[in-house]
Amino acid sequence: MKIIGQVISRRWRPERAAVAGLLATTAYSIAMEGDMAITRNRFSDVRFIQGLMGKQATAQKKFLLLAWILHMLNGVVLAELYAAVFKRFLPGPDWLKGAIFGELFIVAAWWLTPLADRYHPLIKNGELPKLANRRSSNPRPALVNHPSRGIQARKPLKREMANMSIESEPKVTIDCTACQRTLRFFSRKKRIKPDIHPRE
Predict the structure, then answer these.
(1) What Cα–Cα distance (Å) separates residue 80 from each residue in 18, 22, 86, 96?
(2) pTM of the model
(3) Domain check: are 99 and 48 in the same one?
(4) Which residue, of 124, 159, 194, is where some domain finishes?
C-alpha cells in the first residue's frame, strides 16, 4: 500500500481525468476523420481496433460501434494514467507534460508495428497502410504536373523499345468529363489530349 501511495499522485481526480480524456479523444477523432477526408490518409485507429477483434468482425457494423467505444475508453485510460502517475514526474508546464506523455505512448507502441503489419487482417488485405515504414501514412499521387512537360506519371516506365519514336507513343483517352477539365487546366503542353465527348 505504501508503494502504491508513493506512485499515485495525491492530486489525482479520477472524474476530472475521465472528462479530460473523453474531450481529448473526441478532438483527436475529429482531427483523424478530417485528415482521412482531406489528405486521403487510409489509416483509422477505430478500424485498426476493429481488426483486432478478428477477420469476421471487420465486416460487421456492431463491431465498428464496439471499436469506437474501445477507442474512447482507451483515451480515458491514458488520461487516468497520466493524471495518476506520470504527470508529476514529467518536466515543464502542463501542456508540455501532456505532449511528452503522448509522444512517449507513441514511441512505446511503435515497436509493435512490425507485428501489426504481419498479422493484422486489414493491413494484410491492404485496406489499412503498413505502419513499419516512414511513408505508410503519406500517400503520393501517381501523376504529377511537371512545369515544362505537363502531367506525367511520377515513375515513368523506362523500357527501351526498338523503332519507337515520340510520334508512336500510345494515345491516352480520358473517359471522365471532370478529369478532362482538370487535365486541360493543369497540363500546360497538353500532351494528354482528352476527348471532347467521353465514351459511354
Answers:
(1) 7, 11, 9, 17
(2) 0.62
(3) yes
(4) 124
Residue of higher predicted confidence among 97 and 161? 97
φ and ψ at 73, to 5 degrees?
-65, -35
Residue 120 shares a structural domain with residue 27: yes
pLDDT confidence bin for 152, thresholds 50/70/90: low
β-pair type (143-146, 150-153): antiparallel
pLDDT 10s digits, 97-131: 999 999 999 899 888 999 999 999 999 888 999 88
Q: Which three cell numbers stand for residue 16?
A: 476530472
Verify that 101 and 63 share a domain, yes or no: yes
For the CA atoms of the chain, what is the radius of gyration?
25
Q: Domain containing 159: what range?
A: 143-186
Q: Based on the structure, what is the number of domains in the chain?
A: 2
Cα separation of 97 and 19, whole Å? 18
Percent with pLDDT over 90 in the chain? 43
